[in-house]
Structure formats: structure tokens, C-alpha cells
Amino acid sequence: MGKWFKSFVFLLMFLVICSSTVFGQGSIEKKTTEIGGNLFFISSSLSYQGHSEGSVSFFLLAPRFGFFKTDNFEVEPQLLYGRVSENPKYGSSYSFSAYGGILSFSYNFKTSSNMVTFLFVGVGFLGYSGDGDFQSSAIAPDAGIGMKSFISDKSALRLELFYQNMTNYMGIEDLQASNFGFRGGFSVFLK
After folding, report:
1. Is the pTM of this model over 0.90?
2. Which domains does the chain have, with CATH numbers?
3. How far apart are alpha carbons 165 and 143 in whole angstroms?
4. Mean pLDDT for each 10-residue chunk of the chain (191 residues)?
């Protein structure tokens, strides 16, 4: 296993243990709706047999609509739209559009403070448009841990640490990618 994966698993276990021991009083109630959005930025350096082959950057906007089916359990579809830029070591740089969605399920730990820790897992896809023959990318899983920091009774800042596996990465058939990153956003809660 890679160093990044081990670090991710360690951080995930640490945050789960901390959240389950520190928090324990309140909850986000059934029939609450969470509306918000995240911004993604993913930068990947490409190499082949130890030689640099260039870089790829994803910038995505992801509006979210979460529905609490029970106390603390949320079903959360999100849309994805953005731009992908590739800068190969040899040849010209180019960019194209990406669009798709992820359906996530999350568990929000009970809390007695304004910070709510949550775990999530989801599946989705990305399609591409531009010059070239692109395949759709499958995203499975999109998983991680996050924190919602309430700044009022009905709004929160949101930060997520995520791992994402993509098949047909950047629309290239059979190319696999493992992405680690952070996402940040804002949410409003309606009852």
C-alpha cells in the first residue's frame, strides 16, 4: 500500500475515534435538508517509468442537496461541473469540460458543540466534452471524512478529506487513478 493511503487511513481512524469520544449530545434531525456546494481542485503530476510526463489539473464546482432520512444519516446527491487542463511534457497544453455527479451517503456523528464530524461514501461518474474521443470516468468509491463547523443555527462551513478511485481517468480508456484531496464549501440547513 502507498504512503498516501496509509496516511489517509490513519487520519480517518484518528478523527473517528476523536469524534466518537468527544461528541455525543445533539444530532441533525430527520427531515432536515442541507443545500450547499463544494469547490474541488485536484492537481496530478504524471510520470512513466520514473520520468515526468507533465501534469493535469481539475477544477470542479459541486452543488449539493442533502436529505436526512433519519437522525444523522444523510443521502446527498451532488452535481459536478468544471474544467480539466492537461500540460504534457511534450506537445501543447489543452483543456476541456467535465460534468457528472456523485451520490453519497453520510453519517453525521452526534455532537454537543458547533462542530459535526461525518463519514461519507459515494459513487458517481464524470463525462467530458471537447476535442477528442473521451470515455466517461467511473468514480467508485468517493469516500472520506469531513467536518461541518456551524457558524449559525442554519449555516455551516464544510471541509472534507477524501479518497477517490477513478476508472477511465480523464476519459482515457482503462486508465486508473487514485486521488486524495481536500474539498471545502458552505451549507445551509432547512427544516
Report:
1. no
2. 3-190 (2.40.160.20)
3. 9
4. 57 53 59 91 75 82 94 95 86 88 95 88 93 85 93 90 87 82 90 85
